[in-house]
Write a structure and sequence with these properties.
The protein contains 14 helices and 11 strands. By secondary structure, it is of the alpha/beta class.
Length: about 400
């Protein structure tokens, strides 16, 4: 063969020999080849194998298998982002004229999807405080098909009573979807509490190291397959490398969540006792409105997400961020192994009006803290220095 032919076909005949790699390979190929039309037809019929990147690849399958097992679901599908997962599960399972009930404390990106995009497809949306079971019950309509919850809301960390809400929804034939990103399957399994489907942003605790972009839908097989079909049509496939990274990150999920939770509890206690903090939202504190519920449904700790309000509003919060930024940076995401801060009023909830933010407790002095796995003594010292500098 000539040089051009050799270069074009390099690596295709690679043999691994007797050794077996302890980590899965990255299958970074957009297409697969077949020895016959019969074999190609078998793959298209779903018997075995892969044919095109958008339709699936071995790295996605490995990750889906793990997530299905971690969340105790019938099936799982991974997506290019958490929002792709939420969009696909809604668009794949709902039709024009259907009605959705969603928590008024929903993540800002979800709120924007539900208010700016889904109505254009003929879907109706009502927002309620899901802590008020009577308000949820009153929101049901004849065309209600979907109830969207968050196991822990962003950023005020309110806990949904998934068991009670799922029982209420089931009497009306309504599907219950829970965004379990903040808790992760290491702390909570919503499907065991009655939910039908769970969604995740894999960029957060499951990936765990601030390097992955991806999402997941896990739950009843029919719901997941409808979401998968929407992902294929809308092009929301998760990349092979991101799938591979998420799988590696998930190996240490339980270990990390244990340390995250221990640090989170210690820091929440410190902040609650500090004179320059007017409010702390953390389910491990007895002062939290859903503390008893959190104790009942969370396993292995209360997590590492919290929000706190600095006395003095925006100027004080700004001062605090500037002082502590060398140690705990302002970064509009969460769940990394290192601690990060976020300013909800200027990031996740900036699309809301000031009145809407005030209604759900997102004030100008509110900061969200994602507690990492550092030594808690170092974190406490850094927080004390920054607070004393206000």
């Amino acid at each position: 063969m000539k040089a051009n032919t050799l270069a074009a076909r390099a690596g295709l005949e690679l043999e691994l020999g007797l050794g077996t790699p302890i980590n899965p390979a990255i299958h970074q190929s957009t297409v697969y080849a077949f020895p016959s039309l019969e074999d190609l037809e078998r793959v298209f019929q779903g018997e075995a194998g892969y044919f095109y990147y958008r339709n699936g690849h071995p790295n996605a399958t490995a990750l889906e298998t793990l997530l299905q097992q971690l969340e105790h679901g019938e099936a799982a599908a991974v997506a290019s982002s958490g929002m792709a997962a939420i969009s696909a599960v809604l668009l794949g399972n709902l039709r024009s004229g259907d009605h959705i009930i969603a928590d008024q404390n929903a993540y800002g990106g979800t709120f924007a999807l539900l208010t700016a995009d889904l109505p254009r497809f003929g879907l109706e949306v009502s927002f309620v405080d899901v802590q008020d079971i009577h308000a949820v019950e009153a929101a049901f309509q004849a065309n209600t098909k979907w109830l969207h919850l968050e196991s822990m809301s962003n950023p005020t960390i309110r806990i949904a009573d998934i068991t009670q809400l799922s029982a209420l929804a089931k009497t009306r034939g309504v599907t219950v979807c829970v965004d379990n990103t903040f808790a992760s399957p290491a702390l909570l399994n919503p499907l065991e509490l009655g939910a039908d489907v769970v969604v995740h942003s894999l960029a957060k605790y499951i990936g765990g190291h601030g390097a992955v972009m991806g999402g997941a839908v896990i739950g009843r097989s029919g719901i997941v397959q409808a979401a998968r079909a929407a992902l294929l049509r809308f092009g929301g496939t998760m990349a092979a490398f991101d799938s591979w990274l998420a799988l590696l990150g998930a190996k240490t999920l339980s270990l990390r969540m244990r340390q995250h939770s221990q640090n989170g509890f210690a820091i929440a206690q410190f902040l609650e006792a500090h004179p320059k903090i007017t409010r702390v939202d953390y389910p491990g504190l007895a002062s939290h409105a859903q503390h008893d519920l959190a104790q009942a449904i969370l396993k292995n700790g209360f997590g590492a997400m919290m929000s706190f309000e600095v006395q003095g509003g925006l100027p004080a919060a700004s001062n605090f961020v500037k002082t502590i930024n060398h140690a705990i940076p302002l970064a509009p995401s969460l769940a990394d192994v290192s601690s990060t801060l976020s300013y909800p009023a200027g990031t996740s909830h900036r699309a809301l009006t000031p009145e809407a933010r005030a209604k759900i407790g997102v004030t100008d002095g509110l900061l969200r803290l994602s507690v990492g796995i550092e030594d808690s003594a170092d974190l406490l010292e850094e927080l004390a220095v920054a607070l004393n500098a206000i």
